[in-house]
Specification:
Structural class: mainly alpha
Strand order of the largest sheet: 1-2-5
Number of helices: 10
Helix content: 40-55%
Low-confidence stretches: 234-245
Largest sheet: 3 strands, antiparallel
Mean pLDDT: 85
Radius of gyration: 20 Å
Strand content: 5-15%
Oligomer: single chain
């Protein structure tokens, strides 16, 4: 593979790369590549490695493949939840109630539980690797509905080892003698896709993240609070943002969504 120095790349060359990418991949993939390129060059400038951020004005080209904008209905979220139990149910709740990325859920360790009914996102686990969260702003505390947090605590009570470094959702197999967390794609293929096929509903973690945002907004959540909960990347991200307490309005938004999902229609009397 050819190696090219960052200093040898200009805006035109980077834009050509994105344009070629758009010919083969969907909008979400191209958008992610655009985000990473801008972040890489922004860091290079901040660290003094480059004098100018040539990726700052890159544009996202149109893609021939339609962007996936699937959003689950409230009833679909309830259907999945009714079919799941144990840790699988808790994983589903964290994805559908809290707007977490899949790697953040499977990267959770027991010391990440906070006393203020929150989870501290400290790492992600994806494709067999443990790494830092996606952005600095991603490394934060997120609000968890009270009922979901109680279920996490019940899981902790039934777990034999909840010490430092132990995973909330461990794999049944060890790798080189070390217990690793569940892999999202393994869980998706083993649990979520078969259930989705049974229910006739397509689902993955991207769909669930969009579903969280849509349902939270339709439940009355404020867009700024939903963005704070999802921790979307920002140019002005600061390293210490995760230390800030969760605003009451953010907590209110996730609680309202949790209550709405848990509420089932009353059966009609004959």
């Amino acid at each position: 593979m050819q190696q090219i120095r960052l200093a040898d790349l200009d805006r035109a060359r980077l834009q050509q790369f994105l344009d070629r990418l758009a010919l083969e991949y969907c909008h979400d993939t191209v958008h992610l590549a655009h985000t990473y390129l801008r972040a890489i060059f922004r860091l290079a400038v901040d660290e003094g490695w480059l004098p100018k951020n040539v990726a700052r004005t890159l544009t996202i080209p149109k893609t021939p493949r339609d962007r996936d904008e699937t959003i689950l209905s409230l009833e679909s979220v309830q259907q999945f939840e009714d079919e799941l139990d144990g840790s699988d149910r808790i994983i589903w709740q964290l994805l559908s109630r809290c707007g977490l990325r899949a790697g953040e859920v499977f990267g959770l360790q027991w010391q990440d539980l906070a006393q203020d009914q929150a989870l501290r996102i400290q790492r992600i686990y994806a494709r067999g690797k443990v790494s830092e969260p996606k952005t600095k702003k991603s490394k934060a505390s997120i609000a968890v509905p009270a009922a979901v947090f109680r279920e996490v605590l019940k899981l902790r009570e039934s777990t034999s080892d909840t010490g430092e470094g132990q995973w909330l959702f461990p794999s049944s197999r060890k790798r080189r003698g070390t217990l690793m967390p569940l892999d999202y794609h393994n869980w998706l293929n083993r649990v979520l896709r078969p259930l989705g096929d049974k229910l006739g509903i397509r689902v993955n973690h991207q769909i669930l993240r969009r579903t969280f945002a849509s349902l939270a907004y339709n439940t009355g959540g404020d867009l700024n609070d939903i963005q704070a909960q999802m921790r979307h990347a920002s140019v002005n991200t600061t390293a210490n943002i995760y230390t800030k307490p969760i605003p009451k309005s953010v907590r209110k938004a996730v609680e309202a969504l949790d209550r709405r999902i848990r509420k089932r229609p009353q059966a009609k009397k004959s």
